[in-house]
Amino acid sequence: MLNNDSQTSTCFLLKLSWIWTKPFRFKVEHLSSSPPPCEGGFFNMACFDRVSPALREILLKLYRAEKPSEVDHHLYEFGSVEYHVQSSAADPQHNYLSISTPLLSQGALLSNGLSSYTMKMVKQVCSDAVEIVEPAKEGYQLTLKLNFAKVPSGKDSEKVITQISSVQAVILSSQLKEMLRNVNSQDTPQGMNKPIKLVYHPREPFYIIRQPQKITAVFPIRFREHSDVIIATGFFQELMDVGSSEKWAKAPPCTWSPIPPPELRGEPLEDLSTNGGFVSFDISSCHVEGKKLDKTVWSLLNFYAYVKKHVKCTRGFIQRRMQKRLESLVEVLHEEKLEENGNVQKVKVHAESRYGGKLIRISKPKNFKRRCRDFTRKIMQIRFRIKIHGFQHFRRRWLTIPKFSSPLGYTKLK
């Protein structure tokens, strides 16, 4: 378990150190005592994916359709995300995509819907084929008008549609980027030092706390199974030990505590009731410079997914090891039983070969009587060097073997 936790902790710090160009997949050299890497030698962090595969498939079908058709499709995904795709046969080149996603925070920054920073990020991702419709349709935060006539042909079309399918992830990550980009800002609004509760899934909230020269992200950890708590606790403790080394000095400092940190004092009790403790990361200015900001945000958004992935892989690894161990023990016991049975058979065969014939002969009354007569005859043939008068009579009287019936006799049935 310790090697497993140490390695996976190192893998997570590889991601948080932000020195690789591919932030979501990285090769790991696994130890023989640790679980094998998932999915072809890689740990996949894309449990909370940037691109919606289902939305991408629908948009590609609309773009490649030879005949225009009426489409009014609702799509629901993880995290209470809803997509509404509309297409008209009368105007097949213009399609509408409406997105409803839960806001990370209900604080002052996002009290009036999507902020200007979020809208700016959406415009940067989308190409010329996308136009933002204002106001958005009722019940949705954002409505996009898609002009397929401006989508380039060939392989570039898939690239553009893939970018459009990642708009929801852009909305979600831009909200957190807006909070983290001004780490060293001194002109913080009133009340911003209080914890900001971020929720992209009802059961997985986390907190952002603005402090001098840094921002702290706190994750309350909850599990249903007690065994998962044990695995995760060992992982968090190893994560702190590995993160405190000089090799991973570039990664955000990580701390784990079974009790809530002092900064969360005053928060609702239901949010602080956990069985896995609290994990905190200190984000400083060096972690949000340039492209590191996007990697930092995505690492924080995927932290819950990574912990679940680690617990799941570790539990499966333990179960496989226990099963193999059980099979080896059963095999040893089976071989021991075969050897014991073989020894018993050998003993029986040896005993039968040694005593079987004698037992069969003894069991016959005639043979037994014959052997008794032979023994008596030998005694009667004893000769003494000194002859004693009258001893012949004594010998006939006292040295005669008494007659007795064999207890092994039987009566022949008619």
Automatic annotation (TrEMBL):
<dbReference type="GO" id="GO:0030041">
    <property type="term" value="P:actin filament polymerization"/>
</dbReference>
<dbReference type="GO" id="GO:0042995">
    <property type="term" value="C:cell projection"/>
</dbReference>
<protein>
    <recommendedName>
        <fullName>Arp2/3 complex 34 kDa subunit</fullName>
    </recommendedName>
</protein>
<comment type="similarity">
    <text>Belongs to the ARPC2 family.</text>
</comment>
<keyword id="KW-0206">Cytoskeleton</keyword>
<dbReference type="InterPro" id="IPR007188">
    <property type="entry name" value="ARPC2"/>
</dbReference>
<dbReference type="InterPro" id="IPR034666">
    <property type="entry name" value="ARPC2/4"/>
</dbReference>
<dbReference type="GO" id="GO:0005885">
    <property type="term" value="C:Arp2/3 protein complex"/>
</dbReference>
<dbReference type="GO" id="GO:0005200">
    <property type="term" value="F:structural constituent of cytoskeleton"/>
</dbReference>
<dbReference type="GO" id="GO:0034314">
    <property type="term" value="P:Arp2/3 complex-mediated actin nucleation"/>
</dbReference>
<keyword id="KW-0966">Cell projection</keyword>
<keyword id="KW-0963">Cytoplasm</keyword>
<keyword id="KW-0009">Actin-binding</keyword>
<comment type="function">
    <text>Functions as actin-binding component of the Arp2/3 complex which is involved in regulation of actin polymerization and together with an activating nucleation-promoting factor (NPF) mediates the formation of branched actin networks. Seems to contact the mother actin filament. Arp2/3 complex plays a critical role in the control of cell morphogenesis via the modulation of cell polarity development.</text>
</comment>
<dbReference type="GO" id="GO:0051015">
    <property type="term" value="F:actin filament binding"/>
</dbReference>
<dbReference type="Pfam" id="PF04045">
    <property type="entry name" value="P34-Arc"/>
</dbReference>
